[in-house]
Design goal:
B: 109 residues, mainly beta, 6-stranded mixed beta sheet
């Protein structure tokens, strides 16, 4: 299956700063990547679908001006949390689907963001 | 609305068998997934069911009944490393993945 790498794994930042998280598909050209957020003891929540060369599609309730997504190439999507606040502290995970019949998702390692 | 229900937590003994149930009410159905997630890590794929019946893969098996909106994940010969959360997810008619909250499985020696 597809190999997906995320960076950084851990990030601690001050309130009001911006943080960029990278998601790379290492062996598969992904026209679509998915960004999820997971709060402790809760399920994965889809934030947005990142589309190569076009605007991301955001889920209801997700602020597109706060969570900037850029999918400039077939192997890289970035999520920037702008003006981060403590309530943005969460586990952010990206995933890729190879487009097989099963629709299986391959996940990056995840990035844990802590905003002080 | 769309809903997926699974138990919050289960406890089992090393070497034993455990069954984790998942019931769903979704707008359409295009398959059901089970993922394993260790604490602080991303989920990893375990199984996919789209037709009724049992799919066996080593120590893990997954069952689906579409008419009942029901699935279970069966784990045999439990090992300590199986301690993790198990997530049930359904692909709806729009090919959107609807996630359950996960079942935390605790394995005791």
């Amino acid at each position: 299956g597809a190999v997906v790498s995320q960076h950084p794994s851990w990030v601690i930042c001050k309130s009001g700063t911006s943080v960029k998280i990278e998601c790379r598909s290492l062996d598969f050209q992904a026209t679509t990547m998915f960004w999820y957020r997971q709060f402790p003891k809760q399920s994965l929540m889809l934030m947005a679908t990142s589309n190569e060369g076009s605007k991301a599609t955001y889920e209801q309730g997700v602020e597109k001006d706060k969570f900037l997504i850029n999918h400039a190439s077939l192997t890289l999507s970035t999520l920037t949390v702008t003006s981060a606040h403590p309530e943005d502290s969460s586990f952010y995970i990206c995933s890729v689907s190879e487009g097989t019949d099963t629709g299986e998702l391959f996940f990056g390692e995840g990035s844990r963001l802590t905003v002080l | 609305g769309q809903n997926i229900d699974q138990p919050t937590e289960m406890t089992a003994t090393e070497g034993a068998i455990v069954q984790i149930n998942c019931t769903y009410q979704t707008s359409g159905f295009n398959g059901l997934f089970w993922y394993q997630q260790h604490a602080g890590e991303a989920p990893t794929f375990l199984s996919y069911n789209v037709l009724d019946g049992l799919e066996e893969k080593g120590r893990f098996s997954s069952f689906l009944s579409r008419s009942k909106g029901y699935s279970y994940l069966l784990l045999k010969e439990l090992q300590m490393k199986d301690s993790a959360s198990y997530l049930c997810a359904v692909l709806d008619s729009n090919y959107q993945l609807i996630w359950g909250a996960g079942t935390k499985l605790i394995i005791k020696p």
